[in-house]
Amino acid sequence: MIISVNIQVIVSVRSYMSAGVKRVIIVGSGPAGYTAGLYTARALLEPLMFAGYMSGGQLMLTSDVENFPGYPNGVEGPSMMLEMREQAEKFGLEVQDKNVERVDLTERPFRLWVEDIEYQAESLIICTGAEAIWLGAEGEDEQRGRGISTCATCDGAFFKDEEIIVVGGGDSAMEEAIFLTRFASKVTIIHRRDVFKSSKVMFDRALNNPKIEIRKFRTIKKWLSDENGLTGALLEDPRNGEIEEIMCSGAFIAIGHKPITKFLDGQLATDDEGYIINVENTMTSVPGVFAAGDVVDKRYRQAITAAGMGCQSAIDAERWLENQD
Ligand SMILES: Cc1cc2nc3c(=O)[nH]c(=O)nc-3n(C[C@H](O)[C@H](O)[C@H](O)COP(=O)(O)OP(=O)(O)OC[C@H]3O[C@@H](n4cnc5c(N)ncnc54)[C@H](O)[C@@H]3O)c2cc1C
User: Fold this and answer.
1) Which of 39, 122, 229, 324 is the most exposed place for a label (fewest CB within 10 A)?
2) Catalytically annotated residue among 64, 104, 151, 237
3) Any alpha helices (H) in the chain, and if so which ranges?
4) 151 in active site
5) Ligand 1 proximity of 28 Cβ (cutoff 6 Å)
6) Domain locations in the chain as residue ranges
7) Centroid of ligand 1 to alpha carbon of 36 (angstroms)
8) Is the CB of 302 under 6 A from ligand 1?
9) Do domains 12-131+257-324 and 134-253 have the same CATH topology?
10) What average pLDDT does this structure show over 144-154?
């Protein structure tokens, strides 16, 4: 027993010592991270990636991806992410499926802690994404990706001529609802209050769309389903607890996203929603620290845009490092 503990300690110390100061460390393993990994590996920067608690990122949660170029028959999200990883590893990306717990960006080399081991890097690429905020209603976990989604651009086309609901009262909810009318026969917006956060112009656009119905003072009490997926929901009126049933085969939750930046402990400039602000191309407020993908981008939030930004961040990091040499 004592021997195995000692061996573990020795291995940990060695892994830190052998790591030395890396040229680049990538944090996060979604499309942005793997693309940054591929480019920095091919540029011979010997990148190290901490893939995080959800290796592969958000696409590990979905089934079919039909809008990533190069897959004419679509591709399963998890398969695509495994292929991205395989491709980057082939060129030398080293991946550790671990979370970065904290960082010190006050001086170079930058310091990162992973399971209490310290790593150092001349440059960092942060690709930790953003997580959609879910309602947490009964039955939601089971129907994620089987009818309930948080991305209309990604999944709207699966609901041609079907009735769907959108939950939320902000601009995103209005935008998603309007977009979804291209496919759905009817879209019902469910909102818990009668006051909407959305701009008046977006609200009016939704209100005047003949395919959209807006239901105020309604919350989702429970999602309903059968063996084929989502069939509807029980709606509750928060004013008096009255329950009614609504039929739908798809639902989109549009109540916001949360960028994953807690481990940075406020050391990079962010906007008021917590998204990292890139001040020069993909470089953040700290020179030598770059950021890419959904942790920066609250507008597009797509695999292809995250991958594109991952490529940009790798090229930016490479050029920045060259100028420091
Ligand atoms: C259900 C669903 C379906 C979708 N379908 C599509 C689609 O069909 N087409 C499309 O283009 N887009 C789709 N999207 C959106 C797409 O998944 C995202 O835009 C994309 O994954 C963003 O990539 P990213 O690399 O920025 O971050 P993410 O994919 O979010 O990856 C973030 C990574 O950071 C890691 N991480 C977080 N914190 C730490 C830490 N402290 N240390 C180390 N690692 C950390 C996580 O483990 C994860 O690997 C979908 C999203 C969802 C949720």
Assistant:
1) 324
2) 151
3) 2-19, 31-42, 77-90, 140-143, 152-155, 171-180, 200-207, 303-324
4) yes
5) yes
6) 12-131+257-324, 134-253
7) 14
8) yes
9) yes
10) 89
Residue with tokens 């960082």: 103
Q: Is 304 in the pocket of ligand 1 (CB under 6 A)?
A: yes
- At the topology level of CATH, where does 134-253 sit? FAD/NAD(P)-binding domain (3.50.50)
Q: Is 248 a catalytic residue?
A: no
The predicted pLDDT at position 154 comes to 87
Q: Do 179 and 156 touch, CB atoms closer than 8 A?
A: yes
Per the listing, tokens 């004592």 go with: 2
| Degrees to nearest 5, angle at CA 280 with 296 and 94 | 60
For the question of residue 155 being annotated catalytic, the response is yes
65 lines ligand 1 (CB under 6 A): yes
| Rounded percentage of the chain residues whose pLDDT exceeds 70 | 94
CATH topology (fold) of 12-131+257-324: FAD/NAD(P)-binding domain (3.50.50)
Distance 20 CA to ligand 1 centre (A): 29
Q: Is 80 strand, coil or helix?
A: helix
